[in-house]
Amino acid sequence: MCSPFDTLDFPRPTREALALRFGQVSTLLDQANVPDAARLFDTIRRDYESWAALVDLRFAQDTTSPHARAERDYADALTPYVTAHEVTLKRRLLEYPDPMAVAQVVTPHTLELWRTDITTFDPRITDALEEEARLSGEYTALLAGARVRIGGQEVNLSGLAPYAESTDRAVRHEAEQVRWAFFAHNAPRLDSLFDQMVKLRHGMARTLGYDSYIPLAYRRMRRVDYGPADVARFRADVLEHVVPLVHDILRQRCETMGWEVLYSWDEPLIDPMGNPRPAGGDALLMERAQTMFDRMGGDLGRFYRQMRDGGYLDLVNRAGKAGGGFCTSFPTIGMPFIFANFNGTQHDINVFTHEMGHAYQNWKSRGLPAVDLLWPTMDAAEINSMALEFLTWPHIDLMVEAGQGARFRQMHLISSLSFLPYGVCVDHFQHEIYASPDMTPAERNAMWRRLEQRYMPWRNYGGLPHPESGGRWQAQGHIYRSPFYYIDYALALCCAMQFWIRSRTDAAGAMQAYVDLCAQGGAQPFTRLIRSAGLHSPFQPGTLADVVRTARDILNA
């Protein structure tokens, strides 16, 4: 049984202590003791990552805490120093005179990842990395501190969700107005933050010998088996196959609702009867989730019970808490943690099942021999999360209000399809931004608006000035904090929906393939993990078209 979360307290590392421990690895290599050197190197990294993950989590749980912010700043300053030591030792192991001795201890894929890692760092960019992390924290704190008034209540941005999905069109409109009023008010600061980030990243890339940040970003994401050209072809597939289907769905919704025009604040209302809601609050959902995971078989229920009993869940929305949801982990103890902001909408179910997919994968692969393998690259990691969203469908009636299971499943399918055009729009935007890092804020907004009109031609902001002028992208945290991550959701969704299609005729087989994929963790790169699970690559011609054809047939049934 794992230690309760509230008892976790990893030692706070110092530069001096880390230098001593990394020096011990070098000494072992000098003595030709590769096995012990590799094991100690892995242990040090697990220790550091566990501490850093807890620091980041505590800051996300309360961005207003001076102590949490100070610890986050300390970690931000320390991490480039640790990276420098890690890169030095990775180089030594990669250049070791007896490569077979290293290969016997470290998997070939780990070495492949390290060959990528050593091209992403140089001591000359240490200060820039620290500043990049500081700016990311500033963005997080700015959005977490948002307080807006609606319906006589003061809420944060996550708390706007119930209003944004209201069956009352005027309430939805008001929710959009107050949301974008916040971003309009903070636009100068948001533009300044992003401008600094873009120039920092471009400068780091140039220092490392790249023409732009784009190839460096792909290497930082550890993408070893595909590149920008593959992603561009996938975006073109979304434009060809998904955009027309989503446009048709929205036209039909407009007719059903009797609207002459579909505005941006109408899009979140996916179900004409009102979006299905959770069966209750977080306590009831957590209890029902136990039944759901127990029914799905295997060890999923046992794992969830450990998380729940150990306090490895933080799901309640509150003031000062960072927005969004994520899963982190503590590799020294082999336990993940789920962070979310429940707000009483269907999003609670989606984000919970999504993050549980990440958590289950990390737990299943906790025994893999190297810290580099505990998570796959994020493109593959998002398959684990999104696939579980679909695999819970047969039991989802437990999680929604009585009689709303079928409506929830349809809504989830429609929202998944609708996400793809937005997901590739974010990715395309970032490629354009980092290809031209000297764009002004106005030019960036104009670029976003042009791409938005290409991938989401139905989008009508009804005169809301900030998004209508192209500022919608400022609300997407990944663009600031995790550049080039967002396409991973779209690629993974194409794969996750293949699990869903398989589960319709072979539920047990689909679930077993999913469990096997989770257990592999990051033992292989993205495209090889896909093949091992019997899935078709989203880069393969026809894959997305086949998935969309099945979805269209089911929606029209």
Short description:
This protein is mostly helical and 557 residues long.
Structure description:
By secondary structure, the chain is mainly alpha-helical. It is built from 23 helices and 5 strands. Strand 4 (326-330) and strand 5 form a beta hairpin. Helix 12 runs antiparallel to helix 13 and helix 16 (405-435) packs antiparallel against helix 20. The longest helix is centred in the last third of the chain and has 31 residues, at 405-435.
Topology:
Blueprint: H1 15-30, H2 34-61, H3 66-94, H4 99-105, H5 108-117, H6 126-144, E1 148-150, E2 153-155, H7 161-164, H8 169-185, H9 187-207, H10 213-220, H11 228-257, H12 282-296, H13 300-310, E3 313-316, E4 326-330, E5 335-342, H14 347-364, H15 378-391, H16 405-435, H17 441-455, H18 465-468, H19 477-481, H20 487-503, H21 507-520, H22 526-532, H23 543-556
Parallel strand pairs: 3-5
Antiparallel strand pairs: 1-2, 4-5
